[in-house]
Amino acid sequence: MNATLRTQVGQLARRSVLRTLRQPGQIVPALIFPLFLLAVNSGGLKSATDLPGFPTDSYLTFALAVPFMQGALFSVMNAGTDLARDIETGFLNRLALTPLRGAALLSGLLAGAVVLGVVQGAVYLSVGLIAGADLAAGAGGALVIVALSVSVTVAFGTLGLFAALRMGSGEAVQGLFPVFFVFLFLSSMSLPLELLQTDWFHAVASVNPVSYLLQAFRSLLIEGWNLGELALGFAIAAAIGTIGMYAATRTLKTRLVRT
Amino acid sequence: MSEQTGQAGIEAEGLVREFKNGPRAVDGIDLRVAPGEIYGFLGPNGAGKSTTVLMLTTLLPPTAGVARVAGFDIASEGGKVRGAIGAALQEAALDPLLTGREHMRLQTALHGIPKAERTERSDELLARVGLSEAADRKVGGYSGGMKRRLDLALALAHRPSILFLDEPTTGLDIQSRTALWDEVAGLAKEGVTVFLTTQYLEEADALADRVGIIDHGTIVAEGTPAELKAEIGRPTVEAVPRDIADQERVARALQPFGEATTASHRGAASVRLEGGESQLADVVRALDAAGISIEQLQLHAPSLDDVFLAKTGRSLEGAGEDAESEPGSGEMEAVGAS
Question: Looking at CA atoms only, how far is residue B54 from chain A in angstroms?
Fold first, then answer.
């Protein structure tokens, strides 16, 4: 990365982080809502641990993986809404009149998602552990969980950027929230893949990448160090991020029709 | 940083922008703006002003025609054009969550101004537009005038030789408008070429060295405000008698000087002076000779609205109400992209 690009990414990252920190309305729901659902699910579905083959006797530990995914879904909305607002207000045109490179714009915008990912990862894990969840991988595992949280948050954030560039409207980006939530529900969110008895649901959850992202978090919480599942989780996050970034970059080129 | 662009201004020939399934927003305009000149681009809403600015600032490719800005071709040398120009587009595009100083920091950095100079340049520009005290407040709390002034400061960050201002004073109160006019006039004195779109007659009249009047995507008149008004209008003189019963006598006394027009005061008579304003002394003598006691005598110079009326058959005020609204920049980008 040359000095110019570094400066551009740095400045836009700074702006993205400042924007994120100055909008408690973005951070607080992303922290509260997943923890609220965690409390409800871990209480209501506790008896699922009695099922033969359930990997742990603590449903809280099993369910603790879910907030990381839900938090990442918020990053779709936050990153996407911020960019859509820049398009709507003409701020993107202001940036387009500078020698700014598209890659710098998108990378900088994701800096806010990184901050959100770190905060979310640390808060979810801390609250979960305080509430009595296990962390089989120990202190090192906690760091990897936060790193995985950041990876997933950034990966999903690229999808938000793509949606914003494609639709150019903050409302339209927010309208995608239920769609992304469906992906979460059609995964191994509530039960391990092996215990999903309904054929169609099992088939859908088996091809849903969210199931494997959840499994990567659970491996650290329940099993300890399962490098295969961890690698798969990071690889899926990287793949989603790469696809999202590629789509966003292409759409940015058509959105920024400067000569 | 802006490149050395010599003394080139803005030149356009046959510039056209046509939108998919939409109107021909700009329909073959020719422009010549000399370096250091303030060019007022006057027209109602939807006339094609903003579309022209977006093309000249490289944010929208023209459908046809050529244009050079600061000596660079807008279609093939977009990067060089952007390096030489500053622009404050319609609606101050600012981030309400950032402070004025943070905006300046971002803008100076993105324009590649060396780190050591950024703070000094930002402070200098914030002071210039009168925002030093408000520099550390979030822009969301700024008034409309403050936002416009910050917008102007941002456009000047990299010392551009040409400045595009798209309706910079729309929605501002008189005080803020006058302050911005002073600033723009000051820039022109420093040699900056200013391309200013406006729908305010008085703004074009007060600021512009030359004015182009655009309607339905074509330039219908161009020249200095004085030339345009001289070409079209002759002044009118209106006499208000001390006793309104003398209205008929006043009208008879004024009749030799030209065609009668509608007077704006009750009991007054008004004519358009065929021989121009030099006839005013004769008018005074004629009224005196008729023995009419006059309370008020007013000479109305022709306005740019008279010019617009003569060229288009409509008054500028309200002309935009019938016009199809000019597409917003976001919409145009989407169309242009397809």
Answer: 9
